Amino acid sequence: MQDILQYLQDFFGQLNRVEWILLAVLGGIFLIQMVYWTILYTRLLSHCRKLRKGQIPHSTKTPPVSVILCARNEHYNMEQFLPAVLEQDYPEYEVVVVDDGSTDGTQDYLKLMKSRYEHLTTTFVPNEAKFINSKKFALTLGVKASKHDLLVLTDADCYPTGKQWLRQMVRNFDDDTQLVLGYGAYRKQKGLLNRLIVFDTLTIAMQYFNYALLGIPYMGVGRNLAYRKSLFNENHGFVRHLNIPSGDDDLFVNEVAKRHNTRIEVSADSHTESVPETRLKDWLRQKRRHLSTSSHYKGSSKLMLGLESLSRGLFYGLLVACMIVGGFELRLLAGALFAIRYITQWSVINLTAKYLNERRYYTGILFYDLLLPLISLILLMRPDSGKNQSGLW
Fold this sequence. Notes:
single chain, alpha/beta, Spore Coat Polysaccharide Biosynthesis Protein SpsA, Chain A, 2 domains, seven-stranded mixed β-sheet, three-stranded mixed β-sheet, disordered C terminus
């Protein structure tokens, strides 16, 4: 023992003052990152294990439901995906499709489907309102046209992965629950862009699910989201952020979600799947639109998300600094901290991916972990990042 202590004393004695400062700051940032990866981001793993063991209480009631989706020139997607929404194993529900000025044959297709499915209802955005370039207006019309208090939202380019989707989402509603956050995956395809999109979607979901389980829900995705119509009406819908083109899902959730009124649903049968972008510029436009809404989150939401991003960037920056200016001892210690964080991050991400039926990531995690914040920073720094753009629907 004495020899070990002497060795450690000699080892750390090799560090100069600058190296000690770098190590101390790196160690502090490392601890912040480990709090995120070992405490905050592991709640979902515990929840999923309990879910598989049947330890999460759920309601057995099946109240009537209104499914709402909006469509603008989505004829092709609806031909593929709308039947999956209309053929759910659920006793009583309606599907409300809002046609927002489509010119591609959507109206004719909906007429055909209405003749086949009695529980399909359609409405449309009036001509005089078509200048409003916002999905929020179309969704509001869908909510007003709906018959039931429980609303389940999805998109025209989405489809539920199974016939139990509605049952799995609705089982979370009890006397206190007003909002249920679901998982909206993207179809897995070949190519680097697809892997980047799927990884980004996975890690974003990992964040909002874990924070919801911590009692601080801050966002959801409109591809798979459920809430009570009464909640929508009591909060006057999207009126507080109607001037912002996007945010019909995350801004609304950020506004109305509370510790006791929000639950999550992550079972395999509850997922929806969407068609991902295949061109980089289209995905970047979509990414920038989503990032522009995050600036309107509550201060507490921005703080908890910003601290993780900031500490992550500082960790990598300090790691590089240690490797450049440090001697062997500092490089070894910095490398050890990097290895511990990477192994922890790798484990949490891949276990989460397993429970959410996503692909596994290995060495690519480091690449995406560096690339995605850089992409977000560049998009946020663009002067037009918050302006209205064509295609924001």
